[in-house]
């Protein structure tokens, strides 16, 4: 095969300079490939797996644009290259300058583990973690980390080493995405009209040329971070290229064809950068710098594209779609998806009872929390349980999942910024204060369960308390029970 894609997502032709670099993959099946040449063989790429698929061998990006098969009129409906490893810059607050390694996204059948070693310690990632997108925080060093595969996978080791070698002590440019940027190769030209994060131990000299707009700058422990925009003005394009090339010491090229969604704003962005809109969205306003875009929907239905003026186009969908690709003949691709409002719009902590459902931040949450029946508490992320407070105490052990059922009413439930409710009601059937366990009954009911709480009635000695904790898996409550027993020696306990 004559063509491959490098770690930056760019096409590389066999026989061209740097075609022998590691981190190459097939533009069709996305499998790892390597460069071959010899006395009797012309330069070409070959699969490590020995694949001889016809579409792979005959692939040519000049036939219909980047990423399309020969003779095809439709681009692939997936974002190419997102499963490859990459160095990512996270745009966070001043005190947390953050470089991250995006691990490769692999299938369930991958058998090796990735062992990442740096000044932050050693972390191991198995095949389960590699089936989804994983970002690992790494230090600002050259190289930032070392990565090994166990058992050894030479192809994977070469891919990761090639990506890590791109980060230097100076001159790192990250092309911006949603909340950060992806590192460009040191030999990749910067593009007019694009925005970059410049990360270096060497600050940019002043004054800067008018073609370079510095949107923000930070300095932390000797590292400088700039967010810069390279101006794209047709009237001054040639002068800007010369000025920026001299100032930045980097090759500068005119803008590539691009298309972007201007309106409405996306409900959210997936981790791969795909914009997600509500399924009720029927019209999009797109902006292109290379003429009218093309649109292919997952369902194959036709759409209407109206030229508004000056590079703006209205895209109208005639049917409800799950997703679509907006693409340009020159190679620009924009993947979008549509989902139900309940999935497209992030939800908070939800209380659900027989009396209704309410977000914990709403005024109706207190009414739902006061229900004396079963109350389901649903959270948007499992990690939220760690900071939850129920009736004044942390949950122990932490729930496994995003939903948990409690016996109402809930007197005190708190999730920090996700809302809180404090009621004045008590658990139905609460015992009089004359019983020694009355003060801890609420805590035991919440953290262990109703059956364990009823078992408190049969405890009259420390020996019985230990047996109760063992039988009900409530050892974390044993100190509380023993303290209550010691304080109530006049109420029939010893």
Describe this entry's structure for a reader.
The protein is built from 9 helices and 34 strands. The chain is α+β, with helices and mostly antiparallel strands. It folds into 6 domains: 1-78, no CATH class; 86-164; 172-253, no CATH class; 259-344, Immunoglobulin-like; 350-422, no CATH class; 441-487, no CATH class. An 8-stranded antiparallel sheet has the order 9-6-5-12-11-14-16-15. Helix 8 runs antiparallel to helix 9. The longest helix has 12 residues, at 237-248. The radius of gyration is 30 Å and the shape is elongated. Residues 64-82, 425-433 and 490-494 have low confidence and may be disordered.
Task: Name the features.
alpha+beta; single chain; 9 helices; 494 residues; 5-stranded mixed beta sheet; 8-stranded antiparallel beta sheet; 34 strands; 6 domains; disordered C terminus
Q: What's the pLDDT, averaged over the residues?
A: 79
The top-level CATH class of the largest domain is Mainly Beta
Q: What does the overall shape look like?
A: elongated
What gyration radius follows from the Cα positions, in whole Å? 30 Å
> How many beta-strand elements?
34
Question: What can be said about the biggest beta sheet?
Answer: 8 strands, antiparallel
Q: Please indicate the percent range of residues in DSSP E strands (runs of 2 or more).
A: 25-35%
Give the count of helical stretches. Answer: 9
Adjacency order of strands in the biggest sheet: 9-6-5-12-11-14-16-15
């Amino acid at each position: 095969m004559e063509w491959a894609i490098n770690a930056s997502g760019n096409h590389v032709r066999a026989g061209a300079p740097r075609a022998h670099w590691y981190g190459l993959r097939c533009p069709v099946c996305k499998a790892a490939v390597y460069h071959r040449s010899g006395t009797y063989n012309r330069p070409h790429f070959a699969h490590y797996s020995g694949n001889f698929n016809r579409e792979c061998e005959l692939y040519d990006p000049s036939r219909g644009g980047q990423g399309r098969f020969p003779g095809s009129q439709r681009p692939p409906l997936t974002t190419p290259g997102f499963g490859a490893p990459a160095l990512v810059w996270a745009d966070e607050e001043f005190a947390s300058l953050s470089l991250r390694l995006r691990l490769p996204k692999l299938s369930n059948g991958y058998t090796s583990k990735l062992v990442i070693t740096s000044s932050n310690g050693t972390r191991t990632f198995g095949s389960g973690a590699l089936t989804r997108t994983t970002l690992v925080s790494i230090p600002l060093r050259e190289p930032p980390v070392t990565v090994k595969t166990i058992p050894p996978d030479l192809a994977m080791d070469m891919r990761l080493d090639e990506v890590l070698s791109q980060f230097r002590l100076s001159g790192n440019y990250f092309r911006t995405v949603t909340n950060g940027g992806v590192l460009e190769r040191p030999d990749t030209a910067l593009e007019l009209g694009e925005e970059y994060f410049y990360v270096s131990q060497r600050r940019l000299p002043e004054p800067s040329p008018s073609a370079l707009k510095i949107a923000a700058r930070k300095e932390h422990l000797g590292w400088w971070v700039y967010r810069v925009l390279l101006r794209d003005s047709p009237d001054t394009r040639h002068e800007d290229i010369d000025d920026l090339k001299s100032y930045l010491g980097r090759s500068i090229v005119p803008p590539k064809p691009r298309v972007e969604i201007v309106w409405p704003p996306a409900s959210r962005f997936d981790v791969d950068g795909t914009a997600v809109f509500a399924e009720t969205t029927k019209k999009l306003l797109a902006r292109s710098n290379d003429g009218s875009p093309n649109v292919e929907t997952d369902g194959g239905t036709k759409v209407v594209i109206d030229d508004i003026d000056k590079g703006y186009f209205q895209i109208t969908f005639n049917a409800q779609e799950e997703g679509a690709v907006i693409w340009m003949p020159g190679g620009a691709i924009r993947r979008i998806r549509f989902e139900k409002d309940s999935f497209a719009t992030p939800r908070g902590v939800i209380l659900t009872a027989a009396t209704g459902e309410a977000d914990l931040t709403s005024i109706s949450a207190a009414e739902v929390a006061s229900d004396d029946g079963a109350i389901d508490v649903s959270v948007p992320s499992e990690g939220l349980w760690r900071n939850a407070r129920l009736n004044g105490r942390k949950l122990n052990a932490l729930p496994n999942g995003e939903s948990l059922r409690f016996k109402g009413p809930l007197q005190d439930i708190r999730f920090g910024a996700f809302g809180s409710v404090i009621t004045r009601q008590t658990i139905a059937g609460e015992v009089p204060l004359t019983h020694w366990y009355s003060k801890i009954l609420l805590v035991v009911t919440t953290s262990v369960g109703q059956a364990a709480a009823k078992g408190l009635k049969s405890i009259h000695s420390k020996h019985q308390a230990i047996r109760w904790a063992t039988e009900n898996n409530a050892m974390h409550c044993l100190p509380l029970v023993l303290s209550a027993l010691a304080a109530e020696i006049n109420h029939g306990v010893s």
